[in-house]
Amino acid sequence: MYVDLNLQLTEEQAALRESVHRFALEVLRPAAAELDRCADAARVIAPGSLFWDVFRQAYRLGFHRALLPAEVGGLGFDPLTQHLFLEELGWGSADFAIALGVAGFPFATLAQTGNAELIDELVRPFVEDGDARFIGCWAITEPDHGSDTLIAGTPEFHDPTITGNLAARRDGDDFVLRGQKSAWVSNGTIATHALTFLSLDPTQGMAGGGVAVVPLDLFGVTRGKPLDKLGQRALNQGEIFFDDVRLPARFMLTDATLYEMTLDMTLALANAAMGAVFTGVARAAYEAGLVYTTERVQGGKRLCEHQLVQKRLFDMFTRVEACRQLSRAALVYNHTVMPPATQYSIAAKTFCTEGALEVTSSALQLFGGNGLSREYPIEKLFRDARASLIEDGSNDVLALVAARHLLAGLSAEPVPARGAA
User: Fold this and answer.
1) From the CB of residue 338, how many other CB atoms can be counted at a distance below 10 Å?
2) Could you report the per-residue pLDDT of 319-364, keeping only the tens digit for each?
3) Does the 136-258 domain belong in CATH 2.40.110.10?
């Protein structure tokens, strides 16, 4: 329904977009709508749930390995193709788009290390999986720490009185993990492996962290119940507890010397992906509103014939197109150039999520009372969009992180941000 302003798209990219769009329309949307109505969040992921049918279909199509490089068996998408892929998934279902993206996160990170042993042990079984037996999650948020885990470079990040809730200490050939991750871990109660951000050296505060891939079948790992929440209800989220879990040292990927750099790169890539997904959500709301106004008659004529409605539709259209161009540019650049320009990924995430909320709200207004009804898709899109301003970093805190990047570019000295947390 939209014209892609990139005239360089290949036939293969156009065909992929159409294929993913069809899957989003025929599989993701109806499944997400049905699971959204589950009163008990545990039912979403119960054995026999539609959730598992969707995951298996996505895995059999190879969608779980879409963000992995071709040399390890991934689809090897270039950055532009990644954006096309993520936008279409987001158009169909933000909840499933995020769940499927996070499912591959630990394995994509392992693939980037070049560690042949771990690639053979974990990555290759994942890419060959056609039954959703291997599912990843990103375990970073904690009971006492949310978006403040992302404010690398600030005095607070280096304050030794502020440390993480999940600690790892070296013990021979293992690390011993003790603590927990919060209820906001996406795929947390269903994942088999977690890309885990943890505290290695508390004397350095939050900066003394490390990153490990943790198989979640290790002795001492337990889970909380699935979180019951406002939106994105098909996205399973829940706590993970670690009670003296012994993790072989080879699974520790990053120590404190590289932690802040790793955190920055992770944030750049994750926020860019969020921008693409919620461009899709905004587009879904705009298109639904556009179609509805051509069918609904009010005041003796179709809604789309009223000038106020036409102005609202144009504003929605403009915001969607702006979201696409910014998020696409940020994703392509930050997947191509190292080190990434993280401020652009943050700009894409905040602009596109706020844009999705704005466009879904406008669409709901066009639907009038019907927009409040669960018989129409708009109220779910609105709830899904509202969640996005908090997940993957609160937009308010992310803005402060990006501002530090902007100001640091004017000086060789780090810019203090006392009170940023």
Assistant:
1) 8
2) 999 999 999 999 999 999 989 999 999 999 999 999 999 999 999 9
3) yes
